[in-house]
Amino acid sequence: MRTQWTNWAGTATATPHSVAAPRDVEEIAETVRGAERDGRTVRPLGSGHSFTDIAATSGVAIDLTGWSGIIEADPASGLVTVRSGTTLRRLNAELDRLGLAMANLGDIDAQTLSGAISTGTHGTGSRLGGLATQVEALELVLADGTVARCSATERPDLFAAARIGLGALGVITAITLRCVPSFVLAADEHAEPLDGVLARIDELAEDNDHFEFYWFPYGRNALVKRNNRLPAGSEPKPLGPMRHYFEYEVMENKVFGLLCRLGRAVRPLVRPLNRLSSSALSTRSYSDHSHRVFTTNRQVRFVESEFAVPRETLHEVLSELRARVPRLREPVMFPVEVRVAAADDIWLSTAHGRDSAYIAIHQYLGMPYREYFDLFESVVGAVGGRPHWGKLHTLDAATLATRYPRFEDFRRIRAELDPAGRFANPYLERVLGPSRPVSSS
Ligand SMILES: Cc1cc2nc3c(=O)[nH]c(=O)nc-3n(C[C@H](O)[C@H](O)[C@H](O)COP(=O)(O)OP(=O)(O)OC[C@H]3O[C@@H](n4cnc5c(N)ncnc54)[C@H](O)[C@@H]3O)c2cc1C
Fold first, then answer.
1. What are the FAD-binding PCMH-type domain coordinates in residue numbering (predicted)?
2. Which of 37, 169, 399, 435 lies at a CB distance of 3.0 to 4.6 Å from 165, suitable for a disulfide?
């Protein structure tokens, strides 16, 4: 029976022809071969947390929920091989027990590891890259049903492409991560005037292991988050359970959700509510195991677009947004989030070859966002911004080719590995073009 698939934000839906739930590599390979025999496309599903229709398929969907957990781990080297359907939440818990951790994480832990790396999911830190930079080796089932392995020394081109492969090159079956000894992060969060933050942005990014800030578009303050690693052996001093519940569950989810519903119902209230949210930002200092500081629970649903821009253009981009967002016809309920990352060498990484600042904009679900997102796309486009592959954007292959120096190399590998477009879907057709052999560059 056909079942409908919908993503977390409800911005993408699809009706797969069928859903396979393989439980080992041979069953994954057989699912791909079966799709080839039947002339259908095939796509692995993560946990549906991309805002784009990147995972959507009308062919065979592969649900990897039953292919989860750590396969092997070497605490001495930090190398850990993980089944591709493992969620970050499960991975963090299993790494905890081994005395290991991911060096950097994004805001939530609901994603699968394979979904997260395939779209270039990242956290923040000027000396660190996104999750895919922590990958040492990959195993994939290719379009012809064979199993391939790649690393920096084994099929290095495939490795450079497949770490952020958009699900276009094969079904990842296993991911070897280089983890670090588990560590405690000291979190310091408080509101500061946005002008001061922008004036010291380089210093703040460089002086903190993980620096980010949120800015409500009609407020003058930014919520600045400085997360820094404590020496090995430090004891965590987390928030008490009552305070944790009050701040994260009550204020950030229930009360903020209520304000959003109010603003959506009575639009003239959005600006004052936005300023109220900005001034109510809480100050807190605590420390905890790294993944408990990096990730939080997000219940209020929203739509999001995020672009990576060269870090030196951040000031210019934010100044432009500050001037133009208040003039939009429809008000904005959610804050802008700013993070940083080090340059890396992955072909379709948004931070490929340049130290980057990530600017993410959001709007409460059900409120108009097109005018805002279009404005944003034109502002970041002027400085060569690259869209997060899992967040809303309208760019196509022709434009993206001008923003990624190794774009044609990626397309060449895709055409070699999947000439028939077995893993194709409408999103990939838009951002990569049709899968067919292209001349080597
Ligand atoms: C509330 C929220 C918070 C977020 N926070 C952040 C953040 O802090 N930082 C950030 O960068 N992003 C963030 N994101 C975006 C999110 O991390 C990415 O969109 C991520 O890809 C979602 O992972 P998923 O498991 O849900 O994958 P899906 O969205 O289900 O799939 C993503 C892609 O991965 C492919 N895929 C899945 N499994 C495999 C496999 N085994 N082999 C090959 N391809 C595969 C799919 O086919 C698809 O192309 C957030 C999203 C939400 C909704």
1. 12-182
2. 169
> How is the chain split into domains, by residue range?
70-181, 184-387
CATH topology of domain 70-181: 3.30.465
Q: How many Å lie between the centroid of ligand 1 and the Cα of residue 162?
A: 15
Three state DSSP letters for the chain = CCCCEECCCCCCEECCCEEECCCCHHHHHHHHHHHHHHCCCEEEECCCCCCCCCCCCCCEEEECCCCCCEEEEECCCCEEEEECCCEHHHHHHHHHHHCEECCCCCCCCCCEHHHHHHCCCCCCECCCCCHHHHEEEEEEECCCCCEEEEECCCCHHHHHHHCCCCCCCCEEEEEEEECEECCEEEEEEEEEEHHHHHHCHHHHHHHCCEEEEEECCCCCEEEEEEEEECCCCCCCCCCCHHHHHHHHHHHHHHHHHHHHHHHHHCHHHHHHHHHHHHHCCCCEEEEEEHHHHHCCCCCCCEEEEEEEEEHHHHHHHHHHHHHHHHHCCCCCCCCEEEEEECCECCCCCCCECCCEEEEEEEEECCCCCHHHHHHHHHHHHCCCCEECCCCCCCCCHHHHHHHCCCHHHHHHHHHHHCCCCCCCCHHHHHHHCCCCCCCCC
Q: Do domains 70-181 and 184-387 have the same CATH topology?
A: no
| Nearest ligand 1 atom to alpha carbon 173 | 41
Residues with CB under 6 A from ligand 1: 8, 43-50, 54-55, 64, 84, 106-108, 111-112, 114-116, 118-119, 121-122, 166-167, 171-172, 298, 388, 390
Reply yes or no on whether the pLDDT at 437 is more than 60: no
Whose alpha carbon is nearest atom 36 of ligand 1?
115
Give mean pLDDT, residues 289-297. 94
If one compares 95 and 258, the residue with the highest pLDDT of the two is 95
Mean pLDDT lowest among 89-93, 333-337, 388-392: 333-337
